[in-house]
Amino acid sequence: MTPSSGPDAAPTEEDPLAATLSEGIGGPVGTRAGRHPWWTPLRVLLALCAVVVALGMLQKAPCYSDTWTDTDARYTQMCYSDLPYLYTGRALVERAWPYSGDAELRERYPEVMEYPVGISYWAWGTALVAQGLTGWADLDERQAADPGSLFGDPEVQREIRAFVIVNALGFALLSLLAVWLLARTHPRRPWDALWFALSPALLLTGLVNWDLLAVVLVAGALWAWSTGRPVLTGVLIGLGTATKLYPLFLLGAVLVICLRQRLWRHLALVGVSAAVAWLAANLPALLTGYEQWRVFWSFNSERGADLGSLWLVAAQAGDVALEPSTINTASLLFFAGWCAAVFALGMLAPQTPRLAQLGFLLVAGFLLVNKVYSPQYVLWLLPLAVLARPRLRDQIVWQAGEIFYFACVWWYLGGLLDDGGGGAAGFYWVAIVVRVAAELYLVGLVARDVWRPRHDPVRRTQPVHESPVSRGLQH
């Protein structure tokens, strides 16, 4: 029996920690174990993910019950979300197109959506759905009111709750789709998606912002590449980049694989299709409001050291003022060096690395030097991490660091980590360093797996061919 035709690799068979933990429920799966006629691995994964997503909604219940008006509870109970505040703060409450240049609208709402177009389109569309479900409010009355007063309006609060529910249900479907895609990326290893489906990071951060839109596109790109669809891979990377910038870095991973295997046609197909998809997604915004479209790019270049970044630790702990231009230059140089190191690692490795491994290393490097690390940014790494290093112990170590940071950032914003003298919150700096250390721990293991493929759990059970034929593109 060949590896590709054998049974699915179960976590209790090849993951030491999973096998140990299974002793309390009967031990690892046996060689004569049968399969349930209906509960396939994929259905189990989807059911578990549905439970986690539901718990994630429940975790936001304290804030939902008072429509995020209790400024203390959103931090002390860690149920903060950007969605309700941006609903009124970015003119979604008035059903305004995010890229409208209308002078009167911009006078009332000078701040526009500071996200790539994919998120702006989704937010606008879900705002329309929420208002449709709540009865289409009279816009004339709202346009006559002070925008700052709308958040407290009872009718608007009803819409905000509907807006959050519509988005939460959409995120639930996206999470299930991501699990489906990840479970099918490696045919014999559907259970690798378990670490995504049961992720505490998914539970805690899925509703903070719209990052799950990009996550599912990254998961789709990993699946498309594994099934030999370079055009679809490029399209999904392009759409992902139009939603969040970081999926762009997957092109670097594709470049390494194609150079090693001399897949020039596939490299061109991925690159061209990604560019076309990105441009097609951006065209409506470019044609209707170029100035509003470019805010995302200027906003990120002009911001200084922000939450969760090592730059913030350096600025606060060292009591120095770091100019945005200085951070921009230093971050760019560091990330360029990091990309060069990942490129060298990928090209010199004994075997062609997998797409998830290279993608994880590149995105992790970007996050390590980014000027801000919002709590939900852990989702960027999640689909890449669970396929790059599908080991329970390593996922626990990494996500434990992320959970620790998740709690500390809200307590920091709520003023709970300030010292008795009202000075800086050194414990928050510790939380940032712990998160970075946990991320570097996983980076080190993935880099080792690339350099010494015998340590890679996937290669032990999933054939990874060097040829572009058949499933050769699964790298």
From TrEMBL:
Keyword Transmembrane helix among record annotations: yes
Record's bilayer topology term: Multi-pass membrane protein
Transferase is among the record's keywords: yes
MF-aspect GO terms: hexosyltransferase activity
The entry's keywords: Cell membrane, Membrane, Transferase, Transmembrane, Transmembrane helix
Subcellular localization(s) per the UniProt record: Cell membrane
Protein name as annotated: DUF2029 domain-containing protein
Organism of this sequence: Nocardioides dokdonensis FR1436
Upper classification of the organism: Bacteria, Bacillati, Actinomycetota, Actinomycetes, Propionibacteriales
